[in-house]
């Protein structure tokens, strides 16, 4: 078994993220963590669905949502999921340079998504949907905001990994870290697909 | 191997603050749970004093509500949960033949989050009053600042912080049990305590996120005037009840399943027989875990969800009695024909069986939705849940303490004092809680601070309080036992009980690396198998070599302190302090992320002779 701190520079095992016990542990734990996160978002979705028609006298989904902007945000986030896959594929080829580039693209796309979300929230605020306006408003901002916070956390996380990636390289110690960060990023994207469907599409037509 | 130098041994308090050794963390969990147990117990005792006589005015109104809320919250979240985590830390890696848990750093972080969460909650006593919304904190009483002061903010944030710690612990043990079992330790050879730990870790993973969400929503309602639970803003208070009980019902199985696991270790050991129906025990454990998620609405029969919902959840609730019954009979069949030794650990297990069965029977009574309309919010409910949580979990924790104390601390607890402890506690428990069934049926509501004289409630309440004196005396005997045996107690040998599972094959207390060589497992009750084959110790599965150990770290404590500080910022609406606290936590995460930690190695010549297999 390869211990912590040993660097395999020349060749990587086929699945470097699962080559050591530490890696296997991290890999498995992260799937469990995502299981917990699924329940967390599931609960938030349930709360949103229960309260989505409680707009009182404030604006509701049909008055507010601008699908083109949301659609653009969706495309950006889904693309970033693909670039994070490309980063992991580069990692498997032991190509540090390309991995860094694809992760960087992922981070930039993530930031673009966050920018659009801030713009979107500011627009809604202008149109009279404050956080305290109605139960719908509270539920909407909380669900979408929780997701936004997750995106922000992912951006910070991947950036931190990139910061030291040149020095540490790709080996059986760092590979699990890159791998779970990309798993997290996929998860955040998948949640967004549900938000797009349940909050925006159902808000417009449901 | 570039990092084979041993690091300097840390000593004293600094060692405890930085340790990532699961056995030390287990001791810290147990000690903290003990501290909170005394606090929660005093709160209970004060409530019983108030209810001893009708029209008493010792602790009335708000003070009583605070005592009640803090007693419930403390006992569930800061006594039972951490005590279980304490045992899991102390025992599970030893039982599966692992050197450590999967994530030692995370383990330490989980402990500090729980501990500071508990401290935070208790600070509320000195900061304008404790929470007074009950441990269930039903909205809108709890979600609006109209009704409550800062006490509920302490509740929300204290539980949020410690809940994060529990979630980490749950994931840690899931991974530890799946990935780190010794060669030959298949799932169907795992001791029952490890099995129950595994199942409750999964329950924690899926039950705590709804509580997290509920607490966040309540937090936003209180702090930012959100409208989740405010009907005038379109909110809905039943959402809180759903979220709370989707967490809250699995929680009671999180509390009681490990106790079942402890009994399944104690009863076979002291009957000198293998556990009857091992496979059905595992099946029943998993089934109880699964059904635990299907029944939360039985806490909400009177909310008005309709007869269909009530019927489904009533039937699901009653179904849990089946796997639980399987367990009870398996324990009885294990005892049947065994060479029973009446040690303190075993009499706690034996006392548990009738007590818990009574709690289970009243549970089925409450599960009948129409009957529940009568029982609801009466003292009958109070009697029921104390019968299952005390008669189940607390008896289990005491049995576990007497059973594993030698392995954890290297000293034996005094058996004579232990028997005094048991009988005082057992008798006191029944004197306290049995009359409460009758009080409930006779019409005494729960959560009240007084009652009128001559309405048939005087005698029952008086007797109930007398029982509390017995239980208080029992705890004092136990604490005396702990202190006295720590100084004068008999030193424990490796295998004081003629045990069956792996933890008894190593020295007491276990060395920091647990196993000098990872053992080869050849059957259920691994150590017993070897003993019956005439071997004195386990067969190693690997040659003697260097052992890699994780480095100690102060970061988990600082990280938790960051959240602790931040909580005060949120409670008193000072967002600079709130932000600063969060910044400390994130800075620690950043440091942890960029700094490499290679740990250190223990060389064979640093291990004790016995552990290296050199027997004199």
Tell me what you see in this structure.
The complex is a heterodimer of chains A (206) and B (616). Chain A is mainly α. Chain A is built from 7 helices and no strands. Chain A has helices at residues 21-51, 61-64, 67-92, 96-126, 135-163, 165-168, 175-205. The longest helix of chain A is centred in the first third of the chain and has 31 residues, at 21-51. Chain A is elongated, with a radius of gyration of 20 Å. The model of chain A is unreliable at 1-9 (pLDDT under 50). Chain B has 616 residues and is mainly α. Chain B has 18 helices and 2 strands. Chain B has helices at residues 12-18, 22-50, 62-95, 104-123, 151-179, 192-224, 237-271, 278-292, 307-319, 321-335, 344-367, 369-375, 379-409, 415-441, 458-488, 526-532, 555-571, 575-594; strands spanning 547-549, 600-602. Residues 1-6 of chain B have low confidence and may be disordered. The interface between A and B is large, with 42 and 46 residues.
């Amino acid at each position: 078994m390869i211990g912590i701190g040993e660097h395999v520079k020349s060749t990587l095992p086929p699945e470097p993220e699962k080559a050591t016990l530490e890696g296997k542990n991290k890999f498995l734990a992260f799937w469990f963590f995502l299981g917990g996160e699924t329940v967390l978002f599931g609960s938030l979705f349930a709360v949103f669905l229960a309260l989505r028609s409680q707009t009182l006298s404030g604006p509701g989904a049909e008055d507010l949502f601008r699908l083109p902007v949301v659609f653009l945000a969706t495309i950006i986030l889904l693309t970033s999921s693909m670039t994070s896959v490309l980063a992991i594929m580069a990692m498997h080829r032991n190509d540090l340079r390309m991995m860094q580039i694809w992760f960087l693209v992922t981070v930039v796309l993530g930031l673009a998504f966050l920018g659009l979300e801030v713009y979107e929230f500011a627009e809604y605020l202008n149109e009279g949907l404050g956080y305290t306006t109605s139960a719908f408003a509270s539920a909407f901002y909380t669900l979408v905001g929780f997701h936004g916070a997750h995106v922000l956390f992912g951006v910070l996380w991947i950036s931190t990994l990139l910061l030291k990636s040149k020095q540490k390289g790709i080996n059986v110690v760092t590979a699990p870290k890159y791998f779970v960060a990309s798993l997290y990023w996929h998860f955040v994207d998948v949640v967004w697909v549900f938000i797009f469907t349940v909050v925006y599409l159902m808000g417009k037509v449901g | 191997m570039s990092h084979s130098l041993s690091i300097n041994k840390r000593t004293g308090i600094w060692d405890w603050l930085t340790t990532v050794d699961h056995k030390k963390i287990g001791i810290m969990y147990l000690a903290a749970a003990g501290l909170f147990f005394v606090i929660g117990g005093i709160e209970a005792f004060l409530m019983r004093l108030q209810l001893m006589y009708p029209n008493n005015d010792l602790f009335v109104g708000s003070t009583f509500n605070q005592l009640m809320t803090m007693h419930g919250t403390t006992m569930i979240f800061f006594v039972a949960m951490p005590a279980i985590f304490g045992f899991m830390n102390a025992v599970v890696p030893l039982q599966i033949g692992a050197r450590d848990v999967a994530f030692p750093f995370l383990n330490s972080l989980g402990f500090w989050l729980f501990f500071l969460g508990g401290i935070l909650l208790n600070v509320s006593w000195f900061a304008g009053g404790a929470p007074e919304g009950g441990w269930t904190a039903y909205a809108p009483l709890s979600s609006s600042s109209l009704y409550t002061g800062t006490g509920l903010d302490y509740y929300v944030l204290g539980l949020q912080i410690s809940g994060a710690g529990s979630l980490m612990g749950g994931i840690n043990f899931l991974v530890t049990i799946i990935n780190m079992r010794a060669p030959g330790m298949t799932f169907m050879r795992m001791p029952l305590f490890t099995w129950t730990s595994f199942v409750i870790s999964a329950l924690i993973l899926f039950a705590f996120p709804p509580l997290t969400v509920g607490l966040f929503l309540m937090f936003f309602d209180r702090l930012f005037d959100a409208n989740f639970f405010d009907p005038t803003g379109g909110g809905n208070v039943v959402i809180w009840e759903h979220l709370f009980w989707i967490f809250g019902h699995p929680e009671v199985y999180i509390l009681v399943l490990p106790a079942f696991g402890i009994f399944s270790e104690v009863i076979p050991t002291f009957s000198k027989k293998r556990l009857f129906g091992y496979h059905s025990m595992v099946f029943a454990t998993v089934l109880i875990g699964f059904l635990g998620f299907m029944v939360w609405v039985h806490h909400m029969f009177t909310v008005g969800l309709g007869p269909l919902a009530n019927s489904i959840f009533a039937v699901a609730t009653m179904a849990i009695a089946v796997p639980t019954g399987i367990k009870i009979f398996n324990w009885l069949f294990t005892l049947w024909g065994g060479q029973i030794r009446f040690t303190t650990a075993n009499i706690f297990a034996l006392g548990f069986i009738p007590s818990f069965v009574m709690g289970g029977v009243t549970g089925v009574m409450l599960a009948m939705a129409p009957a529940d309309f009568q029982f609801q919010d009466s003292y009958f409910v109070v009697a029921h849940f104390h019968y299952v949580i005390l008669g189940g979990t607390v008896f289990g924790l005491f049995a576990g303490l007497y059973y594993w104390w030698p392995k954890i601390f290297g000293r034996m607890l005094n058996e004579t004092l232990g028997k005094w402890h048991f009988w005082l506690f057992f008798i006191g428990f029944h004197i306290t809680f049995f009359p409460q069934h009758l009080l409930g049926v006779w019409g005494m509501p729960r959560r009240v601070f007084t009652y009128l004289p001559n309405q048939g409630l005087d005698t029952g309440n008086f007797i109930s309080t007398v029982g509390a004196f017995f239980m208080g005396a029992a705890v004092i005997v136990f604490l005396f036992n702990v202190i006295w045996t720590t100084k004068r107690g008999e030193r424990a040998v490796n295998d004081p009980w003629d045990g069956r599972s792996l933890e008894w094959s190593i020295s007491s207390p276990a060395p920091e690396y647990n196993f000098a060589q990872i053992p080869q497992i050849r059957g259920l009750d691994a150590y017993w198998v070897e003993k019956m084959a005439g071997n004195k110790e386990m067969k190693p599965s690997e040659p003697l070599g260097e052992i890699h150990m994780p480095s100690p770290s102060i970061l988990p404590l600082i990280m938790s302190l960051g959240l602790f500080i931040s909580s005060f910022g949120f409670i008193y609406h000072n967002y600079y302090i709130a932000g600063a606290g969060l910044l400390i936590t994130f800075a620690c995460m950043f440091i942890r992320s960029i700094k490499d930690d290679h740990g250190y190695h223990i060389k064979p010549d640093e291990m004790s002779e016995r552990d290296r297999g050199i027997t004199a």
